[in-house]
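Justification of computing resources. Each target in the renewal requires a structure prediction run like the one illustrated here; the chain below, 160 residues long, is used simply to show the kind of job we budget for.
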Amino acid sequence: MKIKRLEISGFKSFADRVTLDFQQGITGVVGPNGCGKSIVFAFYPGQLVALFAGSGAEAAEIIKIGIITMRFVAFYCLFDAANVVISSILAAVGETSWLARTFFICTCVFMVLLWGVDLFMPDLILEWALATAFVFITAVLWFFRFKKGVWRQQQVLRQS
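Resulting structure tokens:
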């Protein structure tokens, strides 16, 4: 499909009519949640990054770094979705205090590591690796907490 022009009115933050003209065209990856958009970013990042890299001398380096970054983004999204699902289940069964404490500790460790990387050896790839590791580790922690079954002994509703 080719989109040459988009008019938006009354949608989210577009109260007034706004027209966007795409003289050179536009590329987008759209679809409902869970349909596999992240898989495109994980397995075909080169083609997507090449659309925006241009043709100058630095295009090859942009594509190389873009491919790595897009893969981190794809896996980050996958692990973050697992985080949302599992933490929602744990919260629904009364594990909110444990979730809050554990998330706070994990976030503090992540922020200190990120600060250290940013201060001593700034590197976009390393920062994305840390962010991806953060969501992966928290998803694993939530999963093992769920499998341990501590929530089975908790009384969520109390009789009056």
